[in-house]
Amino acid sequence: MGEGWYWAAWVVWVPLFALSLLRAPWGRLGNSEQLNVWLGMVVFLTLVWSMKAGIKPGLSLHLLGATVFSLSFGPLLAFIGLSLVTAAVTLNGAGGPLAYAANALLLAGFSVGLSHFYFRIFSGMLPKNFFVYIFINGFLGAALTIVSVGFAATLLLALVGAYEWDYLISEYFPYFLLLAFSEAWLSGMIMTLFVIYRPQWVASFDDSSYLAEK
To answer: Which helix (H) or strand (E) holds 6?
Structure first.
């Protein structure tokens, strides 16, 4: 990937991150319990992202956790948190510093944006039901998010000439379809535990909407 792409990513990421910092609902983290959960997610996902598999240089795969983060804290705090995760794995040698913004846009910005988009679509189309929330938003939303991110990564790598499209679509992208099952299971399980035992940790879940008179 040429340096021009990296610098273009910085031009997009810097104002996006700054705007997120300004508009994020920081009051939610004023509660020490919520802050600990948010920080815990950052640490946990840093460990998860560090456990990745590689096919060839630049072709790595790992779970995202964007759906759990987005459903729990909303898109802005999730984007900021995953940007910190991206920074942590970058400092750990997972990628060059110049590539940080490009990775953050894809793995933090795009993944959180997709998670929130699917949540809004499903919430508008389907009844507000506990099982719909868990199986559609938690499981299906997570699977669709990682598949979409995988396709975007495949397309981006082909556009910048890192690898041939035919190779990427046949040897790289299919792994995201397999990874989607693990992402869906992990996200669905965590969201189930959260809404049952700690619903106050989940910003997108409202007892009065999902449980009242159900």
So the answer is: helix 3-23
Rg (alpha carbons) of the chain, rounded to whole number: 17
Could you list the mean pLDDT of each consecutive 10-residue stretch along the chain, which spans 214 residues? 81 97 96 96 95 76 94 98 96 85 95 97 90 93 97 92 90 93 95 93 82 56
* Domain count for the chain: 1
* Cα–Cα dist 162/158, whole Å: 6
Residue 14 sits in a domain whose CATH number is: 1.10.1760.20
The Cα–Cα gap between 86 and 49 comes to 8
Residue 10 to residue 61: CA distance in whole angstroms: 23
- Whether the CB-CB separation of 103 and 10 falls below 8 Å is answered with no
User: Structure pTM?
Assistant: 0.93
DSSP symbol at 58: T
Identify the H or E element spanning 56.
Answer: strand 53-56
Helical ranges in 90-133 per DSSP H: 100-104, 111-125, 130-132
Q: Measured in whole angstroms, how far is the alpha carbon of residue 95 from the centre of its chain?
A: 18
